[in-house]
Amino acid sequence: MNNFNLHDFTYEIENEDSLNDTALSFDYSENGLTLSIKAEKSRPKYVRLKWSFKTEGKPYVCGDAWETSYGNLCADEFKKHADFLPWYFTAQTDSETFCLGVKTGCNSFVCFSYDESGVTAHIDCRSGSHGVSLGGRMLELCTFVFRRYPLPIFDALCKYCKELCDSPLLPKEKIYGGNNWYYAYGESSREEILSDARLQAKLADGIENPPFMVIDDGWQLLDTRGPYIPNEKYGDMKSIADEFKSLGVRPGIWIRFLENESEEVTDDMKVFRNGERKFLDPTDGRVQALIVNDINKIKSWGFELIKHDFSTHDLFGSYGCNLTFGITNDEDWHFKDETKTNAEIALDFYKLIKKACGDMLIIGCNTISHLCAGLVQINRTGGDTSGRHWETTRDNGVNTLAFRLCQNGNFYLVDADCVGILGDNIPWEKNRQWLDILSKSDTMLFTSCASLDGEKFADVRRAYFEIQKEHKIKPLDIYSNRTPYKWEINGELTEYKW
Questions:
Q1: Of 241, 307, 347, 473, which shows the fewest CB atoms inside 10 Å?
Q2: Strand partners, 46
């Protein structure tokens, strides 16, 4: 890519109609190339920029994911892994590593394809499945940033991600503790969650920074959706949060904002998609008020952390692993507000939550990585780990830790997900390793367990003390290995037997 010039490209615009009054503008600076769009009557759907050049040799290529990754991130040979690269990518040749991507918080969904003829940026500026109705508005779509580094892929990405996010939102303290999902899987109660909090308090005894206990899905009246009022197994939520605090444990709670069957929800507050009314439309003022009211209710109970879930799925009809060059399918659907792009709508949704949460911590789960940066303190960067199957934890957890650790502290605090401890489903010699690397990763560490025997208790307690420290960590064998087992931790080689 020695002959690459960020300013030397061709472009095309795809409109939904034949009115063809869409215009682009380009702003060149030392930091990158900013692309803006304007249309009076036309409804633009996609913009494509093509940089033509010839790649010498066979570089290793590494990309990102739309939202959470699903065990599929890798640094692979050029021809194997260059067809769909969301947000940014890096390629390592014999002499250097180059990175090309867009800054976080952009108003479009951007991915790249990279082949022998060059690089194409695919910019999705739709609203729902339609072209966006800008009505003469000039909209900044994205800013491209290109960098070269005399470094291997992981080290280059750590430097590069810092340049992509101007204002990361980070917790002031280490985040660790418990979450009840991977042993309870939605079947829990007031007595059980209080027992969990007591266990977390014992595990963290002697640590000045208190642990969290997050109540996951299962506390509310209906499965996986609102109304967000407690079921009879939980009862008064304020008293639970108060009990957590009396134990020295910080209370957190799970919620899914965009699926809600409350009495005040009517069909016209939902998006019409795939032939039926689906999930709540966050561009509807009544939905926004419902979200704010739910957050205020949770705050009044005394909870200090909200984990909100499923938003990419509920906004766009699928999980990121099923989406390629566009963030949603081409079926006939739209939000109430057709004047904003899908990226703007997602950004507004995250901003609404952040403003309503105030000082509360936010864990984004199934959130769009490049758009939630700066709007959540913690982001679940990978698919679910497991309390039942080690292969799921290895493939999802280790993979996202290795390939998105470069975003940790640069975009948000990375959450590579829990250490699920459910009886003897997973051999402890395996789970102990996952616990160990999380405790030394400077990311978030949550365990999910109802009880612990002597050995497991001692190991988890040791990990809780370890995570309070600062570490330097990086994966070493990421080339063609999706779950690296060789890591450099504080300057020393550590090998895991996944």
A1: 473
A2: 14, 124
